[in-house]
Amino acid sequence: MTPTLKDLLAAGADASPALSAPGREPISHGELRALIQRTLDTLNGLGIGRNDRVAIVLNNGPEMAACYMACASGVTSAPLNPAYRADEFEFYLSDLNAKALIVEQGSTSPAIEVAVKLGVRLIDLVVPEGAPAGAFTLVARDARVETPAAHPGYAEPDDVSMVLHTSGTTSRPKIVPLSQRNLAASATHIRNTLQFTAADCGLNIMPLFHIHGLIAGVLAPLAAGSQVYCTPGFNALKFFGWMDEAHPTWYTAVPTMHQAIVSRASKNTDIIARHPLRFLRSSSSSMPPQVIKELEAVFQAPLIESYGMTEATHQMASNPLPPAVRKPGTVGKAAGPEVAIMAEDGTLLPRGTGIENTGEIVIRGPNVTAGYENNPKANAEGFRDGWFRTGDQGVMDEDGFVSITGRLKEIINRGGEKVSPREVDEILMDHPGVAQVVCFGMPHAKLGEEVAAVVVLREGQQATERELQTFVGARAADYKVPKKILFMDEIPKGATGKLQRIGLAQKLGLG
Hints:
The protein is of the alpha/beta class. It has two domains: 5-141 and 154-307, 3-Layer(aba) Sandwich (Rossmann fold), CATH 3.40.50; 412-507, GMP Synthetase, Chain A, domain 3. It has 15 helices and 26 strands. A five-stranded mixed β-sheet has the order 4-3-5-6-7.
């Protein structure tokens, strides 16, 4: 097992393409390695070294992919969603204790003003005119001279190479530190599962501030010396045009993206025929078996459904490639870490699909985080006897295929974007007209779940659904805004008087 990204990224032949993008010349594996070295030299010269945190706020594309890999190779990368509002950036940049923030030259992101306020050093990413896809230089905005980094060079296996936040159900988002070893293990697991070779080209439409896009979309294929075509982000109208330009052999996406692609596929059969795919991959939320069938018929290629989460550096289980058996409707077999089903008393349950075999899905392995940062309570709850508890309920059949049967956590999974209901509650509670609120997930045909809320207004106060949606929208990313707000005289509670988010949509007849 390769324990560092430097070793992992040494796989590609010097002259073969590594990153490409619409209308751009590709950058080769040799050039990418040289770019990573130069970037680390620049950061080290600015006093930023191993385990120092660098937040990255860049739009999707080859520069984001290259910058992430450079940072993850020698400092601690912290990719953030460019769609965040100022309040969100303030929370994340403070919580991360970021030493620097990388933004594109000319960016108007609210993160910049927040960084200035917090005293976080600003670094511009500059793309030279006519440069190949992914090439950039870093230029600090201030001219202050720094003592060179105390710990320069490439990361060691146990250094923290990436930090991401995971949504907390009942608390603030938790920091997940992922080591160099975690990243290398997960990329290797995915590379092996999907049998990547230097002949492959992936069409990346996944966001690159998210574990799915970063590890499965970019790092795993590059670790096999193959090419990644980096789009500016998902766009169903442009997908087939990109496919024609990229000549991909595969792509990975969340179910909502696959559904948008399949709805346009009948008009693009000639492009599909010209560029036969080896496989399609789906992860981040469960895929309706009807859609799997439709995609496989259209693309004449297998759809590989897999199961991932941030704490596992993405992949935990996956359906295998043909000729091995795939079981649509399951998330496949253990694909890297060990996977087991645990009963409430901590015993591991035998395989089988009966109610007596149903428990919590637990994992352990080299890709699993060592624990949340500065959060002993979450660690005590999240780990048991060396196993990490996923919070998902499931079963494992006689052949080792895992099916997710329910969600133990209350996180709303909106097409792969995870929303903490507690976070939305707290925003709505800031509205002067709101007395009580409970947010929850309601079923949605395409996204799987959508955000909904029940609101109790203060006596004598008035507010409309639209007004409250606008209020949330000014303080949080669009995907967190409740699409349905019900006004009631009191919050529905469970038998014990507790707020019960799970099952609330059903109780209220939503979806």
